[in-house]
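Next comes this protein:
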Amino acid sequence: MNKQTILYFLRSSEKKIVSDMIHYAYRLDETGKTKDELPSLGVYEEFYGLTTKDLGVYALVDKSVGGAIWTRLLKKEDDSSAFVDEKTPVLSMAVIPSLRNQGVGTLMMNQFLQEAAAVYEQISTHVLIDSKAIKFYEKFGFEKLEGSEEKSCVDGSQLAIMIKKLEKKEVVRPSDGYDASYWMD
């Protein structure tokens, strides 16, 4: 990756990033749908950051938001296709299309998993069964939850839940130009 990429914690004051990135995380850009047409996606963004259980990282690539990764702890009644249990947050991830396959997602995921391991025992996500994203998540130790196939609320495509067990480790943050104010609310 030749572009300058800096990671930051996704703070509650940056809810707009979550709101903008949900468009890419849930393929609305590809399907031509809007968030207004899919109110069930609201659980992944509404009131983001107002609980200590919300966790996220975003990538600033050449001074523009290039992607974000975040989790929300949902309740069974939230009607999410990725819900596993009330202790397992659901991960959402987006990379701007022009920056895909350039390492932005990998950089974010590496840091995010360290941060998430300090808070959670495992995380879940839902992935299109026939997408390259399955291999991406498998590279980070996510495993498909057997019998979890379901249709996407976005376009009816087949989804599967993937789970990542997390191992508590000391969090290592980027040291090159590290400024703690970027990592704290």
About this structure: The radius of gyration is 15 Å. The longest helix spans residues 104-117. The helical segments are 15-25, 28-31, 104-117, 133-139. The chain is about 20% helix and 25% strand.
